[in-house]
Amino acid sequence: MSTPRPRESGQRMADAHAARIERAVAAGTLPADIGEALKDPGLSRWRAAAGFCVVDDFAQLHGPAFGTVEVPTDLVAGELPTRFDVADARLLRELYRVVLADGTAEQQAALLSPQLLSALWAPGLAEEPIMRVWEHRFPQLTSGR
Hints:
Layout lengths: L5 H22 L4 H8 L5 H6 L17 E3 L2 H4 L6 E3 L3 H14 L2 H7 L2 H7 L7 H10 L8
Antiparallel strand pairs: 1-2
Helix pairs in contact: 1-2, 2-8
C-alpha cells in the first residue's frame, strides 16, 4: 500500500466534506443555498467546517438602528465591547461582520437592523459565499448598489 500524496489526500477530504453537505441538504437539515456556499472554494476552510446561519426572513431583523447595542460576550469573545453606540461606524461594521459570519439566526434577528444592514452592505462585509446567500435570499440588499 502506498502513502497518498498530499494533493490526493486533500482532494479526498474535500470530496468527503462535499458528500456530507449533500447528505445534509438531501435530509433537509441544511438549506441548499448554505450547502452550496459551504462547498465554495472561496469560503475559508475554517468557515466551511464551522458553517454559518442566515435568517429565513428579512422581516425577522429587528436590531437597533440607533442608541446602544448589547452584544453577547460569547459572540464577540473580546473582539468588540459588549455595549456600544450604533453611531460608532467602525464598531458597527465590525459587529455586523461578526454577526453575519458567526451569529445564530436568533442573534442575527436581535442584533441586525434591516436599515443599517442595507446601508452597510458592500463587498467585504462578509466572505463572498456568505454574502451571496444573503443576496439570494434578500435581493433588496443589492438594490442600493
